[in-house]
Amino acid sequence: MATTTATIPTTDDHSIGQRWYVLIIMMMVYAINIADRYVMSTVLEPIRVELHLTDGGIAFLTGVSLALFYVTLGIPLSWVADRYNRRNLLAGSLVAWSAMTALCGLSRGYTQLLLARIGVGVGEAGGTPACNSIVADYFPASRRPMAMTVFALGAPIGAWMGADMAGAVANAYGWRAAFLALGVPGVIVGALVYFTVREPVRGRLDAHKDDATPTMADTLRFLWKQKAAFHLVMGGGVSAFWGWGLMWFTPTFLQRSFDLSVGAAGAVVGPIHLIAGIAASLFTAWLLARPSFVDPRRILWLLAGVTAAATIPSFIVYYTHSLQTATIMLWIFIPAIYFYIGPAMALIQNLAPCKMRAMFIAVSLLSANVLNLIVAPQGVGWLSDYFAGPGGPTAASLRMALLILAPTGFWAAWHYWMAGRTIVEDQKRAAGAL
Known about the structure:
Layout lengths: L4 E3 L8 H27 L1 H8 L3 H27 L4 H21 L3 H15 L3 H9 L7 H8 L2 H20 L1 H22 L11 E3 L5 H10 L1 H32 L3 H27 L7 H24 L3 H11 L2 H4 L1 H10 L6 H32 L6 H11 L3 H11 L3 H8 L4
Antiparallel strand pairs: 1-2
Helix pairs in contact: 1-4, 1-6, 1-8, 1-9, 1-11, 3-5, 3-17, 4-5, 4-6, 4-9, 6-17, 7-12, 7-16, 8-9, 8-12, 11-12, 11-16, 11-17, 11-18, 11-19, 12-14, 13-14, 13-19, 16-17, 17-18
């Protein structure tokens, strides 16, 4: 790849208010993304019962069907985001997946729900990489870990919407109403993105600017050379496999193990996502703004330590037969699945030249979503069916399957630790210093 490198000013021509407005809007988009995706886990059990499916069958219908198209289209749509107007791509994607979420609520059988779920995955594929790339061009490199952590607040807010709000709606009006309640607001926010967010100049806040446009092969080769980027992609992917993979079946686990209704199970996990998830994300943003965390290695050591420590309560949640103990452990475990999102995304952004950022994020999301939307739910579903035998899935069979998944948090922590060994040199290479 032939390149020309020139130093450019790192000043920002946007006001603080404009930058933060865009950041909040991007956070709202991410919240809708998470809510529209994970409302399905809240209503998993009533859908399974209505459609007479096994745990493996419901995992394919609700998780794998979305993820296959999400991950397949994520790379080409990120290539588009690295070359064309990201604001337009984001607005169109948001409207599309929100409309398909509403159609999930209008479905009347397996095939209609399957097609609508696939449509959600197609739309969501154009969302998060464009969001990340836009935020990176509104905040300089030194402020991106903080900005991306604020952006990541959308995850706990969206999970609360998909658990507590959707659970209450489903309890009162049926599971289909939950999809309608979450789909319509996304169309409104999509219009807000299109009419109020300005497409920023690509790479304007970077110390160096690459005038050449890299091919997809160039980008993937550069990512492979960045050892820290590889371990961050894997660390984030395994964190999603561990944390979000467990959360996929957690509402169903609570319903079966403790005889809770859909609304009651949502009321257990919803406030934890909202309160503890937001608190963890805000604390992370505050912490990473401290001068002591300018060194990216300190951020990675922190991610490794928190993830390893939180793996222990994640195991106890599914081991105990006490609802009170499980709830206490969830208050410790759930914040950890948000703690890593912002810092990991920001560090990956800093390991990529400006015209490769959306693709780097797309590869990261590919790893995360294959693991947490395909491998984890399908694997847990198949294991639950295996342990249950011909009688059909039970609370005990699901418990055993989740206990096998829980220790994988230690695997994620190892990748964060390994990324810290080369991240300083790899960031210099991305900035053109090497």
